[in-house]
Amino acid sequence: MTARERELATGLARTWERIDRACAAAGRTRSEITLVVVTKTWPVDDIRRLVDLGVADVGENRAQELIAKRADLGPGSGLRWHFIGGLQTNKARAVGEAADLVQSVDRPELVDPLGRGAQRAGVIRDCLVQVSLDPREPDGDLGPGSGRSGVLPSHAVDLARTIETDGRLRVAGVMGVAPLGGDAAAAFAALAGVGAEVRSAFPGARIVSAGMSGDLEEAVAAGATHLRVGSAILGGRAALG
Ligand SMILES: *Cc1c(COP(=O)(O)O)cnc(C)c1O
To answer: Which of 46, 64, 80, 233 is deepest in the core (most CB within 10 A)?
Structure first.
Protein backbone atom coordinates (compact mmCIF):
# COMPACT_ATOMS: atom_id res chain seq x y z
CA MET A 1 0.00 0.00 0.00
CA THR A 2 1.16 3.50 -0.81
CA ALA A 3 0.87 6.26 1.79
CA ARG A 4 -2.17 7.72 0.00
CA GLU A 5 -3.89 4.32 -0.17
CA ARG A 6 -3.33 3.93 3.56
CA GLU A 7 -4.66 7.42 4.21
CA LEU A 8 -7.87 6.77 2.25
CA ALA A 9 -8.34 3.33 3.81
CA THR A 10 -8.00 4.86 7.28
CA GLY A 11 -10.39 7.73 6.52
CA LEU A 12 -12.95 5.32 5.13
CA ALA A 13 -12.66 2.91 8.06
CA ARG A 14 -12.97 5.74 10.60
CA THR A 15 -16.02 7.08 8.80
CA TRP A 16 -17.74 3.68 8.84
CA GLU A 17 -16.89 3.35 12.56
CA ARG A 18 -18.66 6.68 13.15
CA ILE A 19 -21.63 5.51 11.07
CA ASP A 20 -21.78 2.20 12.96
CA ARG A 21 -21.75 4.00 16.33
CA ALA A 22 -24.44 6.42 15.20
CA CYS A 23 -26.55 3.55 13.84
CA ALA A 24 -26.21 1.61 17.09
CA ALA A 25 -27.32 4.66 19.07
CA ALA A 26 -30.33 5.13 16.78
CA GLY A 27 -31.32 1.47 16.54
CA ARG A 28 -30.45 1.38 12.86
CA THR A 29 -28.09 -0.77 10.79
CA ARG A 30 -25.26 0.06 8.38
CA SER A 31 -27.21 -1.57 5.56
CA GLU A 32 -29.71 1.32 5.66
CA ILE A 33 -26.95 3.82 4.85
CA THR A 34 -25.40 4.69 1.49
CA LEU A 35 -22.08 6.46 1.90
CA VAL A 36 -21.42 8.87 -0.97
CA VAL A 37 -17.73 9.80 -0.96
CA VAL A 38 -17.42 13.41 -2.10
CA THR A 39 -14.43 13.47 -4.45
CA LYS A 40 -14.75 17.06 -5.73
CA THR A 41 -11.33 18.67 -6.34
CA TRP A 42 -9.52 15.31 -5.90
CA PRO A 43 -7.89 13.51 -8.85
CA VAL A 44 -9.26 10.41 -10.57
CA ASP A 45 -6.36 8.41 -9.14
CA ASP A 46 -7.97 8.89 -5.73
CA ILE A 47 -11.28 7.67 -7.11
CA ARG A 48 -9.54 4.55 -8.46
CA ARG A 49 -8.05 3.95 -5.00
CA LEU A 50 -11.51 4.36 -3.46
CA VAL A 51 -12.99 1.86 -5.92
CA ASP A 52 -10.30 -0.62 -4.86
CA LEU A 53 -11.40 -0.02 -1.26
CA GLY A 54 -14.98 -0.92 -2.16
CA VAL A 55 -16.51 2.53 -2.67
CA ALA A 56 -19.49 2.43 -5.05
CA ASP A 57 -20.89 5.98 -4.82
CA VAL A 58 -19.05 9.24 -5.44
CA GLY A 59 -20.26 12.85 -5.36
CA GLU A 60 -19.16 15.81 -7.46
CA ASN A 61 -20.37 19.41 -7.40
CA ARG A 62 -19.29 20.71 -10.81
CA ALA A 63 -20.71 19.46 -14.09
CA GLN A 64 -17.47 19.50 -16.09
CA GLU A 65 -15.54 17.80 -13.32
CA LEU A 66 -18.08 14.99 -13.02
CA ILE A 67 -18.21 14.46 -16.79
CA ALA A 68 -14.42 14.48 -17.20
CA LYS A 69 -13.78 12.12 -14.29
CA ARG A 70 -16.55 9.77 -15.35
CA ALA A 71 -15.10 9.60 -18.87
CA ASP A 72 -11.59 9.02 -17.47
CA LEU A 73 -12.69 6.12 -15.33
CA GLY A 74 -14.81 4.56 -18.04
CA PRO A 75 -17.97 2.47 -17.78
CA GLY A 76 -16.11 -0.45 -16.19
CA SER A 77 -15.75 1.32 -12.83
CA GLY A 78 -19.31 0.43 -11.83
CA LEU A 79 -19.49 3.68 -9.87
CA ARG A 80 -22.69 5.60 -9.23
CA TRP A 81 -22.11 9.33 -9.80
CA HIS A 82 -24.04 11.78 -7.60
CA PHE A 83 -24.33 15.44 -8.56
CA ILE A 84 -24.50 17.45 -5.34
CA GLY A 85 -23.61 21.01 -6.40
CA GLY A 86 -25.44 24.16 -7.26
CA LEU A 87 -26.94 23.53 -10.69
CA GLN A 88 -26.78 26.20 -13.39
CA THR A 89 -29.63 26.01 -15.88
CA ASN A 90 -27.23 25.87 -18.83
CA LYS A 91 -25.41 22.86 -17.32
CA ALA A 92 -28.54 20.95 -16.33
CA ARG A 93 -28.86 18.99 -19.56
CA ALA A 94 -25.27 17.71 -19.28
CA VAL A 95 -25.82 16.78 -15.64
CA GLY A 96 -29.10 15.04 -16.44
CA GLU A 97 -27.22 12.97 -18.98
CA ALA A 98 -24.13 12.13 -16.92
CA ALA A 99 -25.11 11.89 -13.24
CA ASP A 100 -26.79 8.73 -11.93
CA LEU A 101 -28.53 10.66 -9.17
CA VAL A 102 -29.05 14.43 -9.38
CA GLN A 103 -29.27 15.42 -5.72
CA SER A 104 -29.58 19.20 -6.07
CA VAL A 105 -32.79 20.02 -7.95
CA ASP A 106 -33.95 23.25 -6.34
CA ARG A 107 -36.15 25.00 -8.93
CA PRO A 108 -38.63 24.12 -11.67
CA GLU A 109 -36.49 25.70 -14.43
CA LEU A 110 -34.05 22.80 -14.10
CA VAL A 111 -36.63 20.13 -14.86
CA ASP A 112 -36.87 20.42 -18.65
CA PRO A 113 -33.11 20.52 -19.31
CA LEU A 114 -32.53 17.66 -16.85
CA GLY A 115 -35.23 15.71 -18.66
CA ARG A 116 -33.58 16.33 -22.01
CA GLY A 117 -30.30 15.02 -20.60
CA ALA A 118 -32.01 11.91 -19.25
CA GLN A 119 -33.59 11.32 -22.63
CA ARG A 120 -30.19 11.53 -24.33
CA ALA A 121 -28.89 8.97 -21.86
CA GLY A 122 -31.92 6.76 -22.54
CA VAL A 123 -32.97 6.50 -18.88
CA ILE A 124 -35.52 7.81 -16.42
CA ARG A 125 -33.20 9.87 -14.21
CA ASP A 126 -33.52 9.82 -10.42
CA CYS A 127 -33.57 13.27 -8.82
CA LEU A 128 -33.72 14.62 -5.27
CA VAL A 129 -35.46 17.82 -4.26
CA GLN A 130 -32.88 19.99 -2.49
CA VAL A 131 -34.56 21.65 0.47
CA SER A 132 -33.27 24.82 2.12
CA LEU A 133 -32.66 24.18 5.83
CA ASP A 134 -31.67 27.74 6.63
CA PRO A 135 -33.36 29.30 9.60
CA ARG A 136 -36.06 31.77 8.64
CA GLU A 137 -37.41 34.89 10.24
CA PRO A 138 -41.09 34.76 11.26
CA ASP A 139 -42.00 36.73 8.12
CA GLY A 140 -40.50 33.96 5.98
CA ASP A 141 -37.39 35.89 5.02
CA LEU A 142 -34.07 34.17 5.32
CA GLY A 143 -32.35 34.74 8.61
CA PRO A 144 -28.71 35.73 9.10
CA GLY A 145 -26.06 33.32 7.84
CA SER A 146 -28.30 31.93 5.13
CA GLY A 147 -27.84 31.96 1.40
CA ARG A 148 -27.41 28.29 0.63
CA SER A 149 -29.45 26.77 -2.13
CA GLY A 150 -32.60 24.73 -1.85
CA VAL A 151 -36.32 25.13 -2.31
CA LEU A 152 -38.40 26.40 0.59
CA PRO A 153 -39.71 23.43 2.61
CA SER A 154 -43.29 24.53 1.84
CA HIS A 155 -42.60 24.23 -1.92
CA ALA A 156 -40.88 20.84 -1.88
CA VAL A 157 -43.93 18.75 -2.79
CA ASP A 158 -44.77 21.11 -5.67
CA LEU A 159 -41.26 20.78 -7.06
CA ALA A 160 -41.42 16.99 -6.64
CA ARG A 161 -44.64 17.00 -8.67
CA THR A 162 -43.03 19.09 -11.41
CA ILE A 163 -40.14 16.59 -11.58
CA GLU A 164 -42.47 13.58 -11.81
CA THR A 165 -44.77 15.24 -14.34
CA ASP A 166 -41.88 15.70 -16.77
CA GLY A 167 -41.98 11.97 -17.56
CA ARG A 168 -38.22 11.65 -18.08
CA LEU A 169 -37.31 12.09 -14.41
CA ARG A 170 -38.26 10.38 -11.18
CA VAL A 171 -38.31 11.96 -7.74
CA ALA A 172 -36.28 9.71 -5.45
CA GLY A 173 -36.32 11.79 -2.26
CA VAL A 174 -34.90 14.91 -0.66
CA MET A 175 -31.48 16.39 0.07
CA GLY A 176 -30.34 19.10 2.47
CA VAL A 177 -27.28 20.84 3.89
CA ALA A 178 -27.36 21.93 7.54
CA PRO A 179 -26.89 25.68 8.03
CA LEU A 180 -23.32 26.75 8.76
CA GLY A 181 -22.85 26.96 12.51
CA GLY A 182 -26.52 26.11 13.04
CA ASP A 183 -28.37 23.29 14.78
CA ALA A 184 -27.78 20.28 12.52
CA ALA A 185 -30.09 17.99 14.50
CA ALA A 186 -33.01 20.41 14.14
CA ALA A 187 -32.24 21.00 10.45
CA PHE A 188 -32.14 17.27 9.68
CA ALA A 189 -35.34 16.65 11.64
CA ALA A 190 -37.00 19.31 9.48
CA LEU A 191 -35.60 17.66 6.34
CA ALA A 192 -36.95 14.26 7.47
CA GLY A 193 -40.38 15.86 7.86
CA VAL A 194 -40.27 17.29 4.33
CA GLY A 195 -39.03 13.90 3.09
CA ALA A 196 -42.06 12.20 4.65
CA GLU A 197 -44.40 14.69 2.94
CA VAL A 198 -42.78 14.08 -0.44
CA ARG A 199 -42.94 10.31 0.16
CA SER A 200 -46.62 10.39 0.99
CA ALA A 201 -47.26 11.94 -2.43
CA PHE A 202 -44.63 9.81 -4.24
CA PRO A 203 -44.06 6.51 -2.39
CA GLY A 204 -40.88 5.73 -4.32
CA ALA A 205 -39.17 8.84 -2.96
CA ARG A 206 -37.33 7.07 -0.13
CA ILE A 207 -33.97 8.83 -0.11
CA VAL A 208 -33.05 11.37 2.56
CA SER A 209 -29.57 12.74 1.77
CA ALA A 210 -28.20 14.61 4.78
CA GLY A 211 -24.96 14.80 6.70
CA MET A 212 -21.38 15.61 5.80
CA SER A 213 -18.03 15.08 7.56
CA GLY A 214 -18.97 17.33 10.47
CA ASP A 215 -22.54 16.23 11.14
CA LEU A 216 -23.06 12.68 9.92
CA GLU A 217 -24.06 11.48 13.41
CA GLU A 218 -26.96 13.95 13.54
CA ALA A 219 -28.02 12.86 10.06
CA VAL A 220 -28.05 9.15 10.98
CA ALA A 221 -30.04 9.96 14.12
CA ALA A 222 -32.60 11.85 12.02
CA GLY A 223 -33.08 8.90 9.63
CA ALA A 224 -30.83 9.84 6.69
CA THR A 225 -30.39 7.14 4.05
CA HIS A 226 -27.50 8.85 2.24
CA LEU A 227 -24.46 10.62 3.72
CA ARG A 228 -22.14 12.83 1.65
CA VAL A 229 -18.67 12.70 3.17
CA GLY A 230 -15.57 14.32 1.68
CA SER A 231 -12.87 15.74 3.93
CA ALA A 232 -13.15 13.07 6.67
CA ILE A 233 -12.04 10.52 4.04
CA LEU A 234 -9.93 12.43 1.51
CA GLY A 235 -8.50 15.19 3.72
CA GLY A 236 -8.91 18.95 3.59
CA ARG A 237 -9.60 20.49 0.20
CA ALA A 238 -7.66 23.46 -1.12
CA ALA A 239 -9.82 26.59 -0.85
CA LEU A 240 -11.31 26.38 -4.34
CA GLY A 241 -14.81 27.37 -3.31
C1 LIG B 1 -18.50 19.34 -0.34
C2 LIG B 1 -19.86 18.85 0.00
C3 LIG B 1 -20.03 17.78 0.91
C4 LIG B 1 -18.87 17.13 1.65
O5 LIG B 1 -18.38 17.98 2.63
P6 LIG B 1 -17.28 17.51 3.70
O7 LIG B 1 -17.41 18.47 4.80
O8 LIG B 1 -15.97 17.57 2.99
O9 LIG B 1 -17.61 16.13 4.11
C10 LIG B 1 -21.32 17.34 1.14
N11 LIG B 1 -22.38 17.91 0.52
C12 LIG B 1 -22.26 18.93 -0.34
C13 LIG B 1 -23.48 19.51 -0.97
C14 LIG B 1 -20.99 19.43 -0.62
O15 LIG B 1 -20.87 20.46 -1.49
So the answer is: 233
